Amino acid sequence: MSRADKSAVPAPSFRRLLRSPSLLLAFGFGSGCSRWAPGTVGTVAAMPFAIALLQLPLWAYAILVLLAAVAGVWICRQASDELQVHDHSGIVWDEFVGLWITLIAAPQHWFWLLLGFALFRFFDILKPWPISYFDRHVHGGLGIMIDDILAGFFAALCLQGLVYWVG
Description:
This protein is mainly α. The chain has helices at 14-19, 21-26, 38-53, 58-83, 93-102, 110-126, 131-137, 140-166.
């Protein structure tokens, strides 16, 4: 079966998500099924998890995010294969991981969390070089994840720079 255009394939039903653990995770527990800006909705859905992760020691936060990123390559590939479309717009596990990377070591204050959210969405949507290069040239599960991982790193660098600069 050939891969369909990602805009032509509707999001799976919530019932289908519940029957497939990889789809449930890839679609951010249903947040990726949003008809409006599923990437942004998925990033919002990732925020409570990020706040919980921030309660952990830095080393534990980093290990869990690394595991989520590695697992995400498999999760996103499985979901892509099941839907027969590469990087369906509803696959938002990459947004979850990207936001968690952005907020690593972030101060636990609403201002920094919202700024981290905005910085991540900025880099994820605009995909400046080299993010755009990897987005176009890496395929499969890693291809789905890599642009958001890089967006998270760039957003984290900006956020930490601002934290350092402000104070």
